[in-house]
Design brief:
Elements lengths: L1 H36 L10 H6 L4 E4 L6 E4 L12 E4 L2 E4 L2 H7 L5 E7 L2 H4 L10 E6 L4
Parallel strand pairs: 3-6
Antiparallel strand pairs: 1-2, 3-4, 5-6
Length: 140
C-alpha cells in the first residue's frame, strides 16, 4: 500500500512539473507571436514581378530595368514577345518594370494569366503574346 501511495505521489509530481514546463513554453510562443505582429505589414506583400515569378505560366527574363515577362504557351508570329498588361480592365502597356513601379503591392488582389486562343480573342492583335490581368483594390 505504501508503494502505491509513493508511486502515485511521484507520478502526480512529475505531472505537475511537466505541466509547469509546458506553460512556460506556451508563454514564450505567445511572446514570439506578439513580436512578429509588430513587424510592418508591408513586408508581407510581394510586388507584381515577384508574384509573377511564382506563376508557372510566366517566365521572367532579365534583371534590373531590363526585366520582361514571357507567357509560356502564348505564341506570337508578329514578333512581339512581351504580354499585354491590363489593370482593372484598362490596358496599361507592355513595360513590366514601369507597371511594377506604379503599382502598390498591397493593392494587388488577383493576377490572371491569359494564354489560350479562346481567352485572347477579345484582345485581338494586342493580346497575341498573352495577357497579364491584374485586379486591384482601387480603381485606375
Amino acid at each position: 500500500m505504501k508503494q502505491l501511495i509513493i508511486l502515485s505521489l511521484l507520478t502526480s509530481g512529475l505531472f505537475l512539473i511537466s505541466c509547469s514546463s509546458n506553460r512556460s513554453v506556451r508563454d514564450t510562443k505567445v511572446q514570439n507571436v506578439s513580436e512578429e505582429a509588430d513587424l510592418p505589414t508591408t513586408m508581407n506583400y510581394l510586388d507584381l514581378i515577384e508574384r509573377l515569378r511564382r506563376e508557372v505560366a510566366v517566365q521572367i527574363v532579365g534583371s534590373g530595368s531590363n526585366i520582361t515577362a514571357r507567357i509560356r504557351g502564348a505564341k506570337s508570329f508578329q514578333g512581339e514577345q512581351r504580354p499585354l498588361i491590363v489593370i482593372n480592365g484598362t490596358v496599361v502597356g507592355r513595360d513590366l518594370v514601369q507597371v511594377n513601379r506604379n503599382l502598390d503591392p498591397p493593392t494587388i488582389k488577383k493576377i490572371k494569366i491569359l494564354k489560350s486562343y479562346h481567352e485572347l480573342t477579345i484582345w485581338g492583335d494586342q493580346g497575341v503574346a498573352g495577357v497579364i490581368m491584374v485586379e486591384t483594390t482601387n480603381k485606375i
